[in-house]
Amino acid sequence: MARLGNYLQGLRTGWILLTAAVLTTGCANPTEKMWERLFELGDTRLQTVLQQSLAISGGVVAWSRLEQIDGQAIATVYEQTGGKALVDQQCQVKPGKKVALSLTSHEPAGVLTEVLNTKGNPRIFLQGLSKTQYETDPKKLYGAAIKLRVLMQAMMGPAGLLQEGLELRYAGQERKGGRLMHKIEVTGDLLPAVSADGYQAGNLLVVWIDSQTHRVSRLWLRYYKHNKTFGYLALNIGDFEKVSGGLFLPRYIAYAHSDRHQQFSQQQIMTVEFQKLQAELREKDQKWFFE
Question: Strands, DSSP E only, in 177-215?
Fold first, then answer.
């Protein structure tokens, strides 16, 4: 028992020394930045949950050196009429670049590319059809921002929660799908402002981390629609695979309708199954997207 007490005391001392060194360093590298953000959260429960999740998904050093993630997937889109369509997709996450995420879908009507920049603003490029208002339609753009924002979070896991402009709150534990989860509420710079008055208050992202596997397994987004009403989107995330660089990434993401009570509908909107995933890491610490 004494040996265990000494071990825990050593961990606490090491944590204090590390964070003290980070906070007194004039120009912290990305790895130190991640530790600094964890320390700044203030809530020890939240710090512990995120540390465990970061460790199981590849570690702080690997995530802080992430250059890009490349994925090839088959998306199944479920239509309101009851039918479904299969779409080839290529997904690229580049947290160190101006375009943070791009998603290219090879649809029957043409090739659709949707991108999200570091400020969360979307752009749409449509090939194969004559020019229409599709690329500048505010509803299409906002829909792309919502889809790409939750996709980015699903791919980045716990590291994505350390982005600047986000505020995190540990909301306790609850059961989802019969499993005990840590619940984290996220507010801040989630989505671009919409509508003439620029109103976006009330946007909320909820992240559930499995208490046994320590992996991000569910997401729920409340997003502003119009006239101060909201829409609700839910994601199930699973089938994690170890890729190059030691990162663990999800091979399966399912989008579903939800409600204000955070219930996950059995009626899916779209499922994404990655056939190929790879990550590229820098050899040394460089400037990081979340700085």
Answer: 179-188, 204-210
